[in-house]
Every structure is written in structure tokens, then in C-alpha cells.
Write a structure and sequence with these properties.
The protein is an alpha/beta fold. The protein has two domains: 197 residues, Alpha-Beta Complex (Quinone Oxidoreductase, Chain A, domain 1); 130 residues, NAD(P)-binding Rossmann-like Domain (Rossmann fold, 3-Layer(aba) Sandwich), CATH 3.40.50. Helices cover 22% and strands 26% of the residues. The chain is built from ten helices and 17 strands. The strands form four sheets. Strands 3, 4, 5, 8, 9, 16 and 17 form a seven-stranded mixed sheet that branches. A six-stranded parallel sheet has the order 12-11-10-13-14-15. The model has no long low-confidence stretch (mean pLDDT 96).
Length: 358
């Protein structure tokens, strides 16, 4: 077998030109406790873009994403507020087949079809959030023909979905399930989902419905037909001028948001007394305005959600295998066209997830 592979490698912070095709990049070898995965497909996510550009840095206040920023702090450009080492192979949502195993891993795992659990945890203390990393950020990920990951993070799956379809689940759906878990969403809730046409937004719709909640989606009119397939109870325009009037008699108990931006105060204003706001993104901008009187006089609860409980990804696999949730695959690109795929992802003209295939 060859010792090299094809990989799309991010060489540093900046614009899309920092993603470079290498035809003979060193092929990784599984260390003790790891598996080698032949990547069949890898999904795109906001984390890939934000890490490449350094958008997570506190030096960046620009709402735009995807390009280069004038100033990025070297000490906090990642999701965890820590430095990143370049070159780095990004990409977290891997679907593939285990081709080799490291010392201590059962050789019977070779040949298993897997998707990745992207949260890298301390095996002796998996609940400690301060001891976590992310696949494709703190270590190389899946924008390549091969990747390695801890055996416990390669979750076997049996499904009739294609490799590209399975590559839509790991990041978006685990993010969504983590948000709903943090907000304790139940069948008694009515959940408002801004940005419902995106990967996480669509996952929020499906997973909140799975919990029995009533779901109201916000999306641009051109995407309503696609969003309707996900099963929300109602679909409203992306940003109604009068959100309260658009909702009518609906009583919103949970807002599950990855959008943020200038419209954010409208989302907070329509929450019922005792309502919950849960957030795992800010694609329309991280800087928002809050009237603290709304927050405390309405007895609201705000929860941020990044590091998910350890059981979430394995639960997702059960949901997939049971047919409880469905993929929303918007488009596939060859791995060599990752830059074009990421440009399309940044434009947000699609519904669902974009995937690259080696």
C-alpha cells in the first residue's frame, strides 16, 4: 500500500487560497488505540470555515465569514480559544471504512463502516470539558483519502444511506441534539428554529420533532419547499418585520439559534416567561444587543452549547438506524474541489449539507 495520499491541506489562516491540494501527502498510521479510516465522504461545516479564517478570535468582530480578516489573534483563533498548528487537514464529518487498527484495537473492526464522533475526550475523564479537542481542529481530520481517530470515536453504523448522506450527520446533528439536550426540550415545548434551511437548522427541526415538540421554522421563501420536507409544523419567512404578529397565538418556549446578528433581539422578545434560549453559532454575526430587562423580568434561561454530552453521537446512530431522522444532502463535490464546495457553503444558497468525496 502507498505511504502517501491525496489531501486538501489548510496551510494557515486566511481566504480559500489557504486550502491547498497535495497529491502525495504522508498517509497517517494508526497509533495505539486508533483506527485508520479510508474516507468515503466528508461533510462541510461552519467550524471548518471559522477555524480557517480565525473568526473565533476575539480580535474579530466582523459579522461576515469565509474570507480573510485584517487581524486575528494567534492565541485564540479556534473554537476552544487556543492556538492551532498548521498545516492542518480539516473536515470533521467522516463516513468511511476502517482499513487498519493500531495496537490494542480488535482487528475484527477492520472492514466496519463508521461515522466519526468528533469530540476528542480524555478517556479517563470524558466528562471534563476542559480536556476536549475537536477532530479536524486539534488534530487532522477528513478532507483526505485517509484519516486516523481513536477507536472509540469511530462509531459503527448499519444503514442503507449512501456514504455522502451519512457524512451529513456527525457535526450538524450532534450540535443540534446537544442544543436540545442543554435546553431540556420536551413534548411540552414549542421550538422556534431560525436558519432552518442550514445543516444544523434542519437537524434541529427533525430532532425537536423527534422529541415531540411543536416546531416553527424560519427560512427564506425560496427554501420553504425544501424545509417542509424536514417536517416542521409551520414555516415562516426568514426574518419577519413583526415576528410576534407572524407567530399569532404561538407560545414560543424555546429558541434554538445558530444565526445571531441584528435580528437577535426579536428572537428574545417573543420568548414566553420562563422560556429558554439555546445557541451554538452566530452565522449572521456574533455581536448582538440585549436589553437585560427582558432577560431578567421574563425569567429567561440562556444556554450556550458547544461540547456535547458523550452519549449524543451514539444516540444519533441509533436514531439513524431506526429511521427516526433523515439526511439533508444538498450537493456533493470531488475532494479536489473543496475550495469550490466551501465557497458554495459560505454563500448559503443551499438547503442542508454539502459533502466532498475523495
Amino acid at each position: 500500500m502507498s505511504d502517501t495520499m491525496k489531501a486538501m491541506v489548510t496551510m494557515g489562516h486566511g481566504d480559500l487560497d489557504q486550502i491547498v491540494l497535495h497529491a502525495e501527502w504522508p498517509k497517517p498510521k494508526p497509533a495505539a488505540g486508533e483506527v485508520l479510516i479510508r474516507v468515503k465522504a466528508c461533510g462541510l461545516n461552519n467550524t471548518d470555515v471559522n477555524t480557517r479564517t480565525g473568526w473565533y478570535s476575539k480580535a474579530v468582530t466582523d459579522r461576515t465569514t469565509g474570507g480573510a480578516f485584517e487581524t486575528v489573534n494567534d492565541d485564540d483563533p479556534t473554537w476552544g480559544g487556543a492556538p492551532i498548528t498548521f498545516p492542518r487537514i480539516q473536515g470533521a464529518d467522516v463516513c468511511g471504512v476502517i482499513e487498519a487498527v493500531g495496537e490494542g484495537v480488535d482487528a475484527n473492526r477492520i472492514g466496519e463502516r463508521v461515522i466519526t464522533d468528533n469530540w476528542l475526550r480524555d478517556p479517563t475523564d470524558p466528562d471534563d470539558m476542559d480536556k476536549t479537542g475537536y477532530f479536524g481542529s486539534e488534530c487532522d481530520g477528513g478532507f483526505a483519502e485517509y484519516t486516523t481517530i481513536a477507536s472509540s470515536n469511530a462509531v459503527a453504523i448499519k444503514s442503507e444511506y449512501s456514504d455522502a448522506e451519512l457524512a451529513t450527520f456527525s457535526c450538524s446533528y450532534s450540535t443540534a441534539e446537544g442544543m436540545l439536550t442543554r435546553a431540556n426540550v420536551t413534548c411540552a415545548d414549542t421550538v422556534l428554529v431560525p436558519g432552518a434551511s442550514g445543516g444544523v437548522g434542519g437537524a434541529l427541526v427533525q430532532l425537536a420533532k423527534r422529541r415531540g415538540a411543536r416546531v416553527i421554522a424560519l427560512a427564506s421563501a425560496a427554501k420553504h419547499a425544501d424545509v417542509a420536507v424536514l417536517g416542521p409544523d409551520r414555516i415562516l419567512p426568514r426574518a419577519p418585520d413583526d415576528l410576534r404578529a407572524a407567530l399569532g397565538d404561538e407560545k414560543i418556549t424555546v429558541v434554538a439559534d445558530i444565526v445571531g446578528g441584528d435580528y437577535w433581539p426579536n428572537l428574545i422578545d417573543i420568548l414566553e416567561r420562563g422560556g429558554r434560549y439555546t445557541c451554538s453559532g452566530a452565522i449572521a454575526g456574533p455581536m448582538v444587543g440585549l436589553d437585560l430587562r427582558t432577560f431578567y423580568l421574563r425569567d429567561l434561561t440562556f444556554t450556550g452549547s458547544t461540547i456535547i454530552p458523550p452519549e449524543v453521537t451514539r444516540n444519533l446512530v441509533k436514531y439513524i438506524e431506526a429511521g427516526d431522522i433523515n439526511p439533508a444532502l444538498a450537493a456533493t463535490y470531488p475532494l479536489e474541489e473543496l475550495r469550490e464546495a466551501q465557497a458554495a457553503f459560505i454563500r448559503k444558497e443551499h438547503t442542508g449539507n454539502i459533502v466532498v468525496v475523495p
